[in-house]
Amino acid sequence: MATSSLPRLVGRLKAHLAEQQYPLNQRLPPERALSARLGVSRSSLRKALAERHPEVHLMGIGETIEIYKEKGRPEDVAARFRLPEFHGSHAIGHTRMATESAVTTEHSHPFSTGLDLCLVHNGSLSNHNRLRESLRREGIEFQTENDTEVAAGYLAWRLREGATLEQALEGCLSDLDGFYTFAVGTADGFAVLRDPIACKPAVLAETDDWVAMSSEWRSIAVLPGAADAAAWEPKPAVTYVWEKAAVA
Fold first, then answer.
1. Which end of the chain is more exposed for a tag (fewer CB within 10 A), N or C?
2. Is the separation of the CB atoms in 83 and 30 below 8 Å?
3. Per-residue pLDDT reduced to its tens digit, 116-157
4. Residue 40 and residue 48: Cα distance in Å, rounded?
5. Is residue 151 part of a domain?
6. Domain region containing 152
7. In degrees to the nearest 10, what's the CA dihedral of 201, 122, 165, 46?
8. How many independent structural domains does the chain possess?
9. How many whole angstroms separate alpha carbon 216 and alpha carbon 201?
10. How far apart are CA 126 and CA 142, in angstroms?
11. pLDDT at residue 28, as a whole number
């Protein structure tokens, strides 16, 4: 979608949602590049898009986490979305070389796993086709044939059924076949999980001021104080979770 057409699309969606009497939060921030924020429920927005703009894909929904993704060189994508202007407590970024799906924006990471949750994945799942069909029978929707979206759908299903994020990730160890290192972003922090044989590389580092995770140390080494950080390789089949401290 051309950037110039986004304001018109947002305007039409707002008008359509108002016509259908969907609850819409009118206190909206300015649109950014190819993304926009609408204060409306996921089901209402999906229905409106399906009715009026089936070519538009919903990347994520929530009140805290914003998902921006696009195909192209990382520095070009960062400039397009003006990422240096962002402020927040935590962020998850990912670049991928497509192995299981087409090179498109829709197949890029992160994938939304539910309200204010997103997933990035390094690896390849071997049972994603069978699991996708099982999850569809449970009402989980998919927009691509990407194996990572199946992992995101699996977490969404487990969370919907009442599991905690840690329990949902532990379920991956028995229900997902293949290789994976997952990083899951939440409203309050992030979690990391590697498959039982830890096929894909990962490194964690922590100081009094920050926690960082990456596939290789060189991307962490540029952070302030990295030379004094406690660094380690996350163990296989162990869930690591960090959350912001609660404010009294």
1. C
2. no
3. 889 999 999 999 999 999 999 998 888 888 899 999 999 999
4. 11
5. yes
6. 88-243
7. 170
8. 1
9. 7
10. 17
11. 38
Alpha helix segments (H runs only) across the chain: 6-19, 42-52, 74-80, 128-137, 147-160, 165-175
Q: What is the pTM of this model?
A: 0.75
Under 8 Å between Cβ of 111 and 118: yes
| Average pLDDT taken over every residue of the chain | 80
Residue length of the chain:
248
28 part of a folded domain: no
Cα–Cα distance, 146 to 103 (Å, whole number): 10
Q: Is residue 17 part of a domain?
A: no
**Residue 21 CB neighbour total at 10 angstroms:** 8
Residue found by looking up tokens 């949602």 in the block:
17
Q: How many helices (H) and strands (E) does the chain have?
A: 6, 8
Cα–Cα distance between 237 and 71 in angstroms, integer?
Answer: 31
> Closest Cα partner for 141 from 230, 47, 226?
47
Measure the CA–CA gap between 70 and 4, rounded to whole angstroms: 17
Integer-rounded Cα radius of gyration of the chain:
19
Nearest to 168, CA basis, from 154, 180, 179, 182: 154
223-to-17, 83, 199 alpha-carbon distances in Å:
44, 17, 26
Q: Are 58 and 49 in contact (CB under 8 A)?
A: yes
Look up residue 78 and give its amino acid.
A
Q: CB count, 10 Å around CB of 150?
A: 27
Residue 136 forms part of a structural domain: yes
Q: What is the CATH number of the domain that holds 190?
A: 3.60.20.10
**Which letter does DSSP use for residue 183 in this model?**
E
